[in-house]
Design a protein that fits this description.
Blueprint (H helix, E strand, L loop, with lengths): L5 H26 L13 H4 L18 H12 L2 H24 L6 E4 L5 H10 L2 E4 L3 H8 L4 H6 L4 H27 L13 H7 L2 H28 L5 E3 L2 E3 L5 H12 L10 H19 L6 H27 L10 H18 L1
Parallel strand pairs: 1-2
Antiparallel strand pairs: 3-4
Length: 358
Amino acid sequence: MALRSPTTTILPPALLILAILPILVSAQGETGGNRIDSGQCPNNTEATMVYSPFKPYFTWWHGDVQKCWVAADCLFEAAGESRKQQFAATALVMGLIPLTLKDIAWPERRLIHVTKSLNWAVEILVLALGLVPLETDNAAETKRKSRENNMIAKKAWGLGRGGVVLWIFVAFVGLVASYAGLVFMEIYSKRSALGCPFPVFVATWYVVALVPAAIHACFAMLRRRRHARRQLRRQQTGLATPTVKQGFQVDVQASPREEDAERKKKIISAVQGADEDWPVQMAWGIYYIAGTLIFTSIMAVTVVELICWVGLGFAVTGCSKILAFFLCLVFEETGKRGGEGVEERRVGQSGVAAGYAM
């Protein structure tokens, strides 16, 4: 049997690697590596692409949406380390936009008092827009609590039904315009690294809030029914009936102020649904994690673009909360004058008396 030398054994694989090396280099350029050297990027890429706010891929290419990947690769290849550090910093701030502007920035403004439970569809919409309705079962108490430390609510409660409907229309138009601004910003940015051919990730995330809101509303409805049945059984068996407020059993020895403070403390926590069962909290948690991922994935955000993103975030959140507020207000008796002040004072005095009775 003839022996093969080590050189003969190693040479064919080495020649094979040398033969396919040009192909590998070419493939690397086609799939995203070394695009500048392979001639896939525009001329003078460093001067024209590295700092190019509001210039999407179709500024340089036309007709192929997949070129958005090429544009992003060319930009990052040409960018220096300091520019990449800036992109990392703006991406960090972008990731804070959804949770901070939509929720944490105004936790107590999440509460909206209503006299009776809202229609299920309206409740879902209100929750998706960022407010949590609280039933008071008393119109005067609803008005008094809604107007506390809120100038907008004080003015709004003086409006008639037509004025409330008009404000719903205005807030809706503002919200649609804000969503359009988000779509425009994403189209004219370097888009999302999750899938740049799809330029509406951010606006879609805001709309998808209907999903955790529906879960929230379902569990809230089940909670109210569960406690109503429990209260009915206690009445039928002749046992002492505990005080039930907002569907929660509360201690009859606790003062109204303590009950409201405990309920409020749960609702204004960092994540919506803290007063509900764990699936509600999980749904909202996943929703906000997805929002952080989407906002962070917007590629190569410049400082001026970041300012626009933050401004649009405020606009969307503000219009959403105003719309939700007036959607709740349309079911209340607003615009009344005369004897309502006497009734409000009577309700307020009775609440204070109950608070000090213990």
